[in-house]
Input
Amino acid sequence: MIMNNKFFNIDQDFIKILESSYDGIYITDGGANTLYVNEAYENMTGIKREELIGYNMKDLIKNKLYDSSGSLLVLQTKDKVSLRQKVVKSNKEILITSTPVFHEEEIIYIVTNVRDISDLSSLQKRLKKFEILSKEYEEALKLMKDQMYGLINSNDIRSENMIRLTEKILKLAKIDVPLMLGGETGVGKTYFAKYIHMNSQRKDKEFISLNCGAIPKTLIETELFGYVQGAYTGASNKGKAGIFELANSSTIFLDEIAEFDLDMQVKLLKVLEEGEVRRVGSDKSIKVDFRLITASNKDLKQMVKEGKFREDLYYRISAFPIIIPPLRERKEDILQIILYFLGIFNEKYKMNKHFTYSALKELKSYSWPGNIRELKNIIEQSLILSNDNEIKFIIWNEKEDVKLYPNKSIEKNDGYIENIEKLIVEEGYSLKEVTEKIQKDLIKKILKKEKKQKIVAKILKVDEATISRKIKDA
Output
């Protein structure tokens, strides 16, 4: 196993040490003749030591066992070298580092440490694939934020109901069926409609949106169907394409569809069934292909029962309803939405403002009856009207500028302490009476805003029975 060499003298204990090495070890003499190969090297390369020991590296390369030799390079350079070596026989790739051992100025041994990098190459390929997927994921997140003002950014979602809703929306977005969005005023139905469009097969076309309640009933037909030259007094000489034409091959979002009268409902149903429109004043039909998304704050099913909305149209557009939860039911998402709108308005107004912790806590605890729209407006008002970069007060309306105390402890707020002192010293209240009065006044104030005792109890961290009793005693 070991060639005779005047310098090479190795005992059995040292052989055991070399054999226990995780790395492969390959030792040649100063002429590149193989002296020793450990077991790890055999396992790594698939070549038995009997095929190597006693052979010169030049012969092993000539016989196509390897494509290169670290030992031969060391003899040329008189220095340590590292390289990737291909084991031709087993088609393995290994990383070798060959180090010369000198006796005076003569190289007497070359010790080569060997590591298998086949697994590393596989890992690099997997890493590259992960980087590509990661980039696609980041782009998807950016698109989501751009289209949704951060309302359903998967990084920002905390509430379970929004996670489930987003999963449902992504499934339905890819299937070309009519969708109906429901939910309270201000929950962001337009943003969700845009998000559906941007995740659909029609995303390369322009998203078309129309608020049916904002168009006078006398103009709604021409707005939807368009008109030809001379169709009516005051019409453009060139005529005009309607919303249905503009949405061809794209998505059209009809918000407040409950505002359509029965006559317009019949015309919309005909378009959906026949896939064609006719401009006002024209006798020619135009083929159209669009995806319809509708929304309404009203209960369309109840309107059907009352005869105010056509049943056939209702079932045509409501096969896949999507109910968007109000903000009060997903308070876990409020903070990220606040921060997003804050970023939007800071950029818009060239500002650099932020809310204090107390202000953020106040915003998060509010019930937001106006939902996203109200939150957006309050953030914009507070940012514009605040005097400092640190927004300590929430601007709720024109009459009540300050809704919470500055970001200081109550003990340091002299005005607050003075008011308590006045109640005790000048008006004769006891400390217990003052405490009761503060509690009742605070409950009344919060109840006026939140409307429900249950919510007030949650904010003040007390039982609902306590709130009821305090109100009764007031």
Residues 143-155, 398-415 have pLDDT under 50 and may be disordered.
